[in-house]
Amino acid sequence: MRLADKRKKDDPATVTPTDTALLSVNTTITTPGGAHALTLTGTDGEQVLTSTAVLHVFETEEVCGSISEDTTWKTGVVYVATCNVTVAADVTLTVQQGAVVKFQSSSTGLTVYGHLEVHGTAANPVAFTSFKDDSVGGDTNSDG
Protein backbone atom coordinates (compact mmCIF):
# COMPACT_ATOMS: atom_id res chain seq x y z
CA MET A 1 0.00 0.00 0.00
CA ARG A 2 1.40 3.45 -0.88
CA LEU A 3 0.73 6.40 1.35
CA ALA A 4 1.21 10.08 0.69
CA ASP A 5 2.45 10.96 4.12
CA LYS A 6 5.46 13.24 3.77
CA ARG A 7 4.76 16.78 4.79
CA LYS A 8 6.41 20.04 3.78
CA LYS A 9 8.78 21.21 6.49
CA ASP A 10 7.18 24.65 6.71
CA ASP A 11 3.60 23.30 7.02
CA PRO A 12 3.19 20.11 9.06
CA ALA A 13 -0.50 19.85 8.04
CA THR A 14 0.20 19.69 4.29
CA VAL A 15 0.39 16.33 2.54
CA THR A 16 2.22 16.34 -0.77
CA PRO A 17 0.60 13.77 -3.12
CA THR A 18 3.77 13.41 -5.21
CA ASP A 19 5.83 12.26 -2.23
CA THR A 20 5.08 8.73 -1.08
CA ALA A 21 5.97 6.49 1.79
CA LEU A 22 5.63 2.73 1.86
CA LEU A 23 3.76 1.13 4.75
CA SER A 24 3.49 -2.59 5.31
CA VAL A 25 1.49 -4.32 8.03
CA ASN A 26 2.21 -7.84 9.24
CA THR A 27 0.06 -9.63 11.79
CA THR A 28 0.48 -12.90 13.57
CA ILE A 29 -2.62 -14.13 15.34
CA THR A 30 -2.86 -17.23 17.48
CA THR A 31 -5.78 -18.79 19.31
CA PRO A 32 -7.35 -17.13 22.37
CA GLY A 33 -5.02 -17.24 25.30
CA GLY A 34 -2.03 -16.69 23.04
CA ALA A 35 -0.11 -13.77 21.71
CA HIS A 36 -1.33 -11.52 18.93
CA ALA A 37 1.49 -9.59 17.25
CA LEU A 38 1.09 -6.55 15.03
CA THR A 39 4.13 -5.22 13.19
CA LEU A 40 4.13 -1.93 11.27
CA THR A 41 7.04 -1.18 8.95
CA GLY A 42 7.30 2.13 7.12
CA THR A 43 9.86 3.72 4.86
CA ASP A 44 10.15 7.08 3.19
CA GLY A 45 12.81 5.80 0.81
CA GLU A 46 15.63 6.75 3.16
CA GLN A 47 14.79 5.32 6.56
CA VAL A 48 12.99 2.16 7.61
CA LEU A 49 11.09 2.28 10.87
CA THR A 50 9.57 -0.82 12.45
CA SER A 51 7.33 -1.08 15.47
CA THR A 52 5.87 -4.28 16.92
CA ALA A 53 3.18 -4.60 19.58
CA VAL A 54 2.37 -7.94 21.20
CA LEU A 55 -0.99 -8.32 22.88
CA HIS A 56 -2.18 -11.26 24.95
CA VAL A 57 -5.87 -11.82 24.45
CA PHE A 58 -7.83 -14.20 26.62
CA GLU A 59 -11.32 -15.56 26.19
CA THR A 60 -13.30 -14.90 29.37
CA GLU A 61 -16.47 -16.45 30.68
CA GLU A 62 -18.39 -15.37 33.78
CA VAL A 63 -19.56 -18.16 36.07
CA CYS A 64 -21.98 -17.90 38.99
CA GLY A 65 -24.35 -20.14 40.93
CA SER A 66 -24.91 -23.87 40.90
CA ILE A 67 -23.35 -26.33 38.47
CA SER A 68 -25.98 -29.07 38.23
CA GLU A 69 -24.57 -31.18 35.38
CA ASP A 70 -21.08 -32.40 34.48
CA THR A 71 -19.14 -29.41 33.19
CA THR A 72 -15.69 -28.83 31.70
CA TRP A 73 -13.77 -25.57 32.02
CA LYS A 74 -11.47 -25.43 29.00
CA THR A 75 -7.83 -24.74 28.27
CA GLY A 76 -7.04 -21.10 27.46
CA VAL A 77 -10.23 -19.66 28.99
CA VAL A 78 -10.35 -17.31 31.98
CA TYR A 79 -13.37 -18.12 34.14
CA VAL A 80 -14.47 -15.23 36.36
CA ALA A 81 -16.56 -16.25 39.38
CA THR A 82 -18.86 -13.25 39.91
CA CYS A 83 -20.62 -14.97 42.84
CA ASN A 84 -20.26 -18.25 44.72
CA VAL A 85 -20.02 -21.27 42.44
CA THR A 86 -21.31 -24.59 43.79
CA VAL A 87 -20.75 -28.02 42.26
CA ALA A 88 -23.82 -30.09 43.17
CA ALA A 89 -23.66 -33.63 44.59
CA ASP A 90 -22.99 -36.36 41.98
CA VAL A 91 -21.78 -33.72 39.48
CA THR A 92 -18.20 -33.34 38.19
CA LEU A 93 -16.48 -30.08 37.35
CA THR A 94 -13.42 -30.83 35.21
CA VAL A 95 -10.84 -28.06 34.83
CA GLN A 96 -8.50 -28.61 31.89
CA GLN A 97 -4.80 -27.72 31.92
CA GLY A 98 -4.15 -24.05 31.26
CA ALA A 99 -7.54 -22.84 32.48
CA VAL A 100 -7.59 -19.82 34.78
CA VAL A 101 -10.24 -19.29 37.45
CA LYS A 102 -10.47 -15.79 38.93
CA PHE A 103 -12.65 -14.85 41.90
CA GLN A 104 -14.14 -11.37 41.58
CA SER A 105 -14.05 -10.61 45.31
CA SER A 106 -13.02 -12.12 48.63
CA SER A 107 -16.65 -13.16 49.18
CA THR A 108 -16.80 -15.37 46.05
CA GLY A 109 -15.65 -18.95 46.16
CA LEU A 110 -15.98 -22.49 44.87
CA THR A 111 -17.87 -25.07 46.97
CA VAL A 112 -17.77 -28.70 45.84
CA TYR A 113 -20.33 -31.25 47.01
CA GLY A 114 -19.70 -33.45 43.96
CA HIS A 115 -16.33 -33.94 42.27
CA LEU A 116 -13.59 -31.58 41.16
CA GLU A 117 -11.01 -32.81 38.66
CA VAL A 118 -8.12 -30.44 37.98
CA HIS A 119 -5.83 -31.50 35.14
CA GLY A 120 -2.99 -28.98 35.40
CA THR A 121 0.57 -29.90 34.54
CA ALA A 122 3.92 -28.36 35.43
CA ALA A 123 4.14 -26.97 31.88
CA ASN A 124 0.49 -25.86 31.68
CA PRO A 125 -0.91 -25.34 35.19
CA VAL A 126 -4.42 -24.43 36.26
CA ALA A 127 -4.59 -21.18 38.24
CA PHE A 128 -7.14 -20.30 40.93
CA THR A 129 -6.54 -16.65 41.76
CA SER A 130 -7.93 -13.18 42.36
CA PHE A 131 -9.76 -11.13 39.72
CA LYS A 132 -7.10 -8.47 40.39
CA ASP A 133 -4.20 -10.80 39.52
CA ASP A 134 -2.79 -9.75 36.14
CA SER A 135 0.07 -12.29 36.18
CA VAL A 136 -2.14 -15.10 34.83
CA GLY A 137 -5.00 -14.69 32.41
CA GLY A 138 -4.17 -11.05 31.69
CA ASP A 139 -5.71 -7.85 33.01
CA THR A 140 -9.24 -9.20 33.38
CA ASN A 141 -10.50 -6.26 35.46
CA SER A 142 -8.91 -3.65 33.14
CA ASP A 143 -7.14 -1.77 35.92
CA GLY A 144 -3.83 -1.61 34.08
Describe the structure.
The chain has 144 residues and is mostly beta strands. It is built from no helices and 12 strands. It has strands spanning 2-3, 21-29, 35-43, 48-56, 59-67, 71-73, 77-87, 92-95, 100-103, 110-112, 115-118, 127-130.
Task: Note the overall shape.
Answer: elongated
Structural class: mainly beta
Query: What is the string of SSEs from the N terminus onward?
Result: EEEEEEEEEEEE
What is the tally of beta strands?
12
Number of helices: 0
Average the pLDDT over all residues and give the rounded result: 79
User: Which spans have pLDDT < 50 for at least 5 consecutive residues?
Assistant: 1-9, 11-18
Largest sheet: 5 strands, parallel
* N-end to C-end Cα span: 34 Å
Indicate the radius of gyration in whole angstroms. 24 Å
Please bin the fraction of helical residues. Answer: under 10%
Q: Approximately how much beta-strand content do the residues carry?
A: over 45%
